[in-house]
Amino acid sequence: MDIKTGFVGTVGNTPLIRINSFSDETGCEILGKAEFLNPGGSVKDRAALYIIEEAEKKGQLQPGGTVVEGTAGNTGIGLTHICNAKGYRCLIVIPETQSAEKIDLLRTLGADVRTVPAVPYRDPNNYVKVSGRLAEELDNAIWANQFDNLANRLAHYETTAPEIWHQTDGQIHAWTAATGTGGTYAGASLFFKEKNPDIRCVVADPMGSGLYSYVKTGEIQPEGNSVTEGIGNSRITANMEGAPIDDALQVDDPAALRVIYQLLYQDGLYMGGSVGINVGAAVALAKQMGPGHTIVTILCDSGSRYQSKIFSREWLESKGLWSDQLLPPSRD
What we know:
Layout: E1 16-18, H1 20-26, E2 29-34, H2 44-57, E3 66-70, H3 74-86, E4 89-95, H4 100-109, E5 112-116, H5 127-137, E6 141-143, H6 151-167, E7 174-178, H7 183-195, E8 200-206, H8 211-217, E9 247-251, H9 253-267, H10 273-289, E10 294-299, H11 313-318
Parallel strand pairs: 2-10, 3-4, 3-6, 4-5, 7-8, 7-10, 8-9
Antiparallel strand pairs: 1-2
Helix pairs in contact: 2-3, 2-6, 3-4, 6-7, 9-10
């Protein structure tokens, strides 16, 4: 019998999917780790589990305690699921600019949700800093602190990357992923470089983030903005410190949207915005490297959490992002 133990037992061991349309287009094997198939619906289930279990091991979280976090949504969703499974409370601070679907889902799951204005990290009212202060005010509570809690990247060093290595029989030439906290990118990159230093590890970055300029110039200089949620940063988090970076690729919103809609209409994959950045970077990297290479990225979450935004023609038109390239292809 092969039976998983509850929600916690089903986190991880997701499939690695060949993305047919882009693989055929580039002559490379472009593979996506199907993290949207985690039980909480995103790659963040892994970090959430490691953060909570690390706190338990250290005796920082006692029965009936509270987990507090500032999140763009997916980490909060994963934390709330795991808190429900383990008998903890969950308090989530989230920028009010995040999709209504994610905020509503957090409340449905039973989290205490506090929405706050979206302000830069340097502002004391930034959602991350607010969550840290709230955690200090509560008894028997921990601050998950996903940006600087190294349990985050450890989750990907110990689970995500070894799974990819096994699924590809070690035949991987490049790895690319966007970073928010940096946990997924850094944990996997550290593992891959230990296995084979020749594997190219490339940061995928949306407009509005400073990591592309940091890799290219050594200075964090954000330019433009992006409608993608939960990725990009204006600082180097503890999870990103020391992570191997061979290069960075910047993907703008029109390119990311074309990727997302191609995934939907040609590959049958209904994906969230950050997947557009990840797969867009993988395609650009494939074109740089040439045919015959295997490139792996992350399929972070599904499009259902962004229905009212990136899958709404009216919303995209309001942002000047609608294009007829996003229409379904003719099936004649």
